[in-house]
Write a structure and sequence with these properties.
45% helix, alpha/beta, Rossmann fold, single chain, 276 residues, 4-stranded parallel beta sheet
Length: 276
């Protein structure tokens, strides 16, 4: 075992041995992937009343669920580091996609506050594809990858439906279009949680108007909404610089047009994704 792995193993043993002394999370950012959750998490942790998990993506309710609550608690700070009025939480974007996760989170804490950050699914899918390509997981051209998605992920999706949400390479890396079907994913949470416990925000607003967006999220979490995170206004979430044929965008727009419309109706809010 390398010295790095040994140190990591010893650290995890220490954390688990002190799990009962550690905070239970009050909130979870459930997704979605490539929608700005890393930026959101970094901004949340700057709030003096938010003391988050040791790392952003804990992945307890998918990859490590069989390890039990003690393992999960080990990922959070000591209770005395989360004073009265403060909260703790984590962000694992796979939680939105995998069907059993909503029920698992509810069983752990029915009062959990949940945040879903959503991005135009066309841009999200393209960003996802190039992320997979740069990571060496994807080898197909983008149109071929979109064509192959259903076949590639079919077995993994069936396993997920049966409650097997561990690290499944195909579902994680190749679910370009499925991850953008936000309404069916949100409905699983609405079935077990009070809708008031789920805060849904557009990633566009997080980047275009961060102060107002964060104030709303802080208010939702029950911490001081007046705290200002020192961030500069951005033109928006990073977009892909690669040139793609118009046919790619048209295909994805056509695919998501009706699901987007259904989502907007359910939210009673038009996020503007069908206007391009």
């Amino acid at each position: 075992m390398s010295s790095r792995k040994l140190i990591k193993s010893l650290r995890q043993r220490y954390y688990r041995s002190t799990a009962v002394l550690r905070a239970r999370p009050d909130f979870v950012v459930i997704g979605a992937m490539k929608c700005g959750t890393s930026t959101l998490f970094e901004r949340l942790r700057q709030h003096p009343q938010i003391v988050p998990s040791h790392r952003k993506e804990v992945h307890f309710f998918d990859r490590h669920y069989d390890s039990g609550e003690r393992w999960y608690r080990a990922q959070f700070p000591y209770t005395w580091n989360v004073p009265q009025g403060a909260i703790s939480g984590e962000a694992s974007p796979f939680y939105l996609l995998c069907p059993p996760i909503a029920g698992r989170i509810h069983a752990f804490n029915p009062n959990m506050r949940l945040i879903a950050l959503l991005r135009d699914p066309v841009e999200r899918a393209i960003s996802h594809y190039f992320h997979a390509l740069r990571s060496g997981k994807e080898t197909l051209p983008i149109m071929d990858a979109l064509d192959a998605e259903q076949e590639r992920t079919a077995d993994a999706w069936q396993r997920a439906l049966q409650g097997q949400c561990s690290y499944d390479r195909e579902l994680i890396w190749f679910s370009y279009q499925r991850r953008g079907l936000y309404l069916e994913q949100l409905q699983r949470y609405w079935q077990v949680f009070d809708p008031q416990q789920l805060y849904i925000e557009s990633s566009d607003r997080l980047f275009s108007d961060p102060a107002a967006c964060l104030a709303d999220i802080f208010g939702f979490l029950g911490v001081d909404a007046g705290f200002r995170v020192p961030v500069q206004k951005s033109r928006g979430i990073a977009t892909n610089k690669e040139t793609l044929p118009d046919a790619v965008y048209q295909r994805l727009r056509d695919y998501f047009r009706e699901p987007n419309a259904q989502l907007f109706t359910a939210l009673d809010r038009d996020l503007g994704w069908n206007n391009s």
